[in-house]
Amino acid sequence: QVQLVESGGALVQPGGSLRLSCVASGLTFSWVPMNWWRQPPGKEREWVARISGNGDSTNYADSVLGRFTISRDNAKNTLYLQMNSLKPEDTAVYYCQVRGREIWGQGTLVTVSS
């Protein structure tokens, strides 16, 4: 059984930085592409970033390009999202996902506010 657990969400001021983590179990992590998604309050879930199984290829939504970095440490079965220059519109519950499968974590809340 696959399990994903996100962590690292917090209250941060605009312009600040935060790193989210997602620990995976129950899958061959190094072979599995992964996504980050987010759901702002009152809005639909939106795709944020993806990464290939070995970490050599990444893609980002235009809204976060240049500010966010997706990465992974396959030895630790962990996916990361480094978020810099945070804006209030980045406020959302952030989820990791096994790409191509309907497998999600429980989410972690990021609030960007002064």
Structure description:
This protein is mainly β. Helix content is 0%, strand content 47%. The protein has strands at 3-7, 11-12, 18-25, 34-39, 46-51, 58-60, 68-73, 78-83, 92-98, 108-112. It has a six-stranded mixed sheet, with no helix packed on it. Strands 1-3-8-7 form a four-stranded antiparallel sheet, with no helix packed on it. A hairpin with a 6-residue loop joins strand 4 and strand 5 (46-51). The radius of gyration is 13 Å and the shape is globular.
The 3D shape can be described as globular
Regions with little confidence, pLDDT below 50 for 5+ residues: none
Question: Helical content, roughly?
Answer: under 10%
| Number of separate helices | 0
Main structural class: mainly beta
Main-sheet strand order equals 2-10-9-4-5-6
Distance between the first and last residues' Cα: 40 Å
Q: Can you give the mean pLDDT?
A: 95
CA radius of gyration? 13 Å
- Number of separate strands: 10
Main β sheet profile: 6 strands, mixed
Run of helices and strands: EEEEEEEEEE
Sheet-strand content, in percent, reads: over 45%
